[in-house]
């Protein structure tokens, strides 16, 4: 398991944050450790052998949000 921070594109309000969290909670074997609305980041814990950024963005496909790797981690 690794922990990785991602930037959440288009997350602007608490409702946005809740929608992102809800969609990602549906991904098996993915744990949301922290969601930071002010910095528009999310810290996730997952097994990189079974999950990737592609999987996370696929879970968000029917929203206007997407994740990109954070430059800070």
From TrEMBL:
Residue ranges constituting the HMA domain according to the UniProt record: 2-68
PROSITE patterns: HMA_2 (PS50846)
Name of a matching Pfam family: HMA
Record-linked InterPro entries: HMA_dom, HMA_dom_sf
Coiled-coil ranges per UniProt: none
SUPFAM superfamilies according to UniProt: HMA, heavy metal-associated domain (SSF55008)
Matches recorded under Gene3D superfamilies: 3.30.70.100
Gene Ontology molecular function terms on file: metal ion binding
Name of this chain's protein: HMA domain-containing protein
Lineage of the organism: Bacteria, Bacillati, Bacillota, Bacilli, Lactobacillales
């Amino acid at each position: 398991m690794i922990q990785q921070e991602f930037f959440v594109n288009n997350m602007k309000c608490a409702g946005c944050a809740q929608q992102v969290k809800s969609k990602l909670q549906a991904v098996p074997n993915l744990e949301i450790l922290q969601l930071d609305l002010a910095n528009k980041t999310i810290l996730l814990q997952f097994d990189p052998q079974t999950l990737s950024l592609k999987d996370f963005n696929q879970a968000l496909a029917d929203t206007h949000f997407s994740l990109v790797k954070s430059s800070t981690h």
